[in-house]
Amino acid sequence: MHYPILRTAKNGALIGLCLLVLAGCKEDPDPNAPPEPRTLELAVTQARIEQIDRLYSTPGSVTSEERIEVSSRATGYIQRISAHEGDVISEGDILVEIDPTDVEGTISRAEAALSSAQTTLEDTEQDVTRQASLVAQGVASNETLRRANVARDKARSSLAEAQAALDTALAGRRYTTLVSPIDGIVVARQKHVGDLATPGVPILTIESRSRLLFRTSVSESRIGNVRMKAPVRVTIDALAGRDIMGQVRRIIPSGDPVTRRYDVEIALPAGLDAFPGMFGRAHFSIATDTVVMVPNDALLERGGLTGVFVMDDDMTARFRWLHTGRVFAQATEIRGGLQGNETIIAHDDIRLRDGDRVVITGQASTNE
Questions:
Q1: pLDDT, tens digit, for every residue of 279-329?
Q2: Class of domain 39-51+290-363
Q3: Which class is 100-174 in CATH?
Q4: pLDDT at residue 265 above 90?
Q5: Which of 42, 130, 159, 204 has its CA 20 to 30 A from that of 325?
């Protein structure tokens, strides 16, 4: 019969399976022992407590304090424009030349009127002299002499009027050649050669680069912290964000009724390599905070966490995770993880592990 053979085969397979399960249930091997602490020679520095300005930052733009629209007081067609957008110009440079035909015609008419008035005055003065002689001889009446004097006075008034008209016409001649009143940059050109120049209509717009301002707006809740002539730190993105010390020049006391913000103008230092329109930020000091500061070179990353190695009393380095805040040129504000005055490793060293012992080789400078 075949059944006993099948039963035996099944029992053997079951026994083999149990042996495999038992083999897999062996205890795990002992974990690897932690590496032995090493001794490294490293420099240390100190976490320190400092007084840091609390800043209120607002965006803004560079503007020019002098913005001039060049226009002519004379009417005429533009013959030449020697400056274009972006040109750097100096005071006294010729910018625009206007056809002087109309102006010269006005001057000629004024000169003719002045000559006629002078002739009339000479004639009336002679008439007064003659009438006075006749009155003295008893030949002419006093009324005739009075009329001669009135005519002479009217001629004098006409002469003065003609002289004023000539002076006005001559003044108009100056406005046919327009020169730059300042050193600056041409930022706009509203007219072209052949256009008609009329009084009060701009031809060119010039901005000075020698007197730059930074214009920003301050919220209603912070405007009370802004003081005239107070120093303000300004950063301009195009200048690699470097710190520029300015001074509050003007506070516009009328705020925007929608945004509740007030415009503030900050005078920038002379010689700054900036252009009107550049974007930046103004940083106003509104208070002073006592904070813990750590040199930037001492900060490091371990396992995706930013921290420092703090020295224990037994010269053992212990990694401590930090909550960082504002970052300055040489140091970083620590908002959590340090109390201040701890001794820390001055520079990151990839060899250093938590628990290693350190032999101090020097004290790194803590000055910013």
A1: 999 999 988 889 999 999 999 998 889 999 999 988 999 999 999 998 888
A2: mainly beta
A3: mainly alpha
A4: yes
A5: 42
